Structures are given as C-alpha cells and as structure tokens.
Amino acid sequence: MARDAKSFLADHPLPEQPLPAPDIAPYLDALAAAKTPAEVSAVTHRLLDAAQPALSAVSKVLVAIARWGGRSRSAEPGSPPKMPMSAASQVLVPLDLADLADLTVPRAAYDPAPPLPAPSRGCATPSSPAASPSAPGPKHAR
Prior knowledge:
The chain has 142 residues and is mainly alpha-helical. It has five helices and no strands. The chain has helices spanning 2-11, 25-33, 37-67, 83-91, 93-110. Helix 3 runs antiparallel to helix 4 (83-91) and helix 3 packs antiparallel against helix 5 (93-110). The termini are far apart.
C-alpha cells in the first residue's frame, strides 16, 4: 500500500510528524494547587475548552474518511467502512464524561442533599408503624 500511495503523497504531502501535543504542565500545576471543587472545576473547564477544537478536528476527518466514496452508506454496523464513523463519535466521549463529572462533583459540594430531620423525643423511629391487634392483616392475593 505504501508503494501504491507514494505518488499520491508526492502530490498531496501530509505531515509525517505527530500532531503537536498540548503543554499540559499549566493544567497539572494548577490542579496541584487547587484546594476547592470550584478550583478543580476551573482547571477542568479550561482543559476541555483547550482540547475540544483538536478533538473535533480529528472527529471531522474520521467522518470524512468513513464517508469517502460512499463506502459506509450501506455497510453493516461494526464493519470496517463504519469503524471510522464509530471512532469519530467516540473521540469526543472523554470530553462529555469529563464535563459530566465536572457538573456532578461540584454539585455534591455546593448543593448537598438536605440533612435528614433528627427524630424528636418520644417519637417512633422512622421504621414502619406496628399494626394494632384489632387492625386487619394484609390481604393476600389468591
């Protein structure tokens, strides 16, 4: 395949080096200094905002690969022509999961469930009330 693509690549040169990796040191440094869920959320938001354009671009290229020549139109799910389309949809999953976590963790810290009321003296515990001896028993289905 490399031999057959040689003249094509001569006409359409593509970079041979990997795409540049982002500098994650500022995110890791900020995360190490974070003391509250709000500060961690700020790091998360900035990271997701920075990563989204690159991941979206990769997703777009994978969709174009899947659609090339109409190969994926009638292909079965999970078949090689459909695999790039599946990969394209999964490229953005980490962003969605991280965003969901970012919504959930701070919510637990800033909007916790209200505390249960303390039982008052002389009141029964929150268990089910005892049936009185004169009360009819449960009806059984036959």
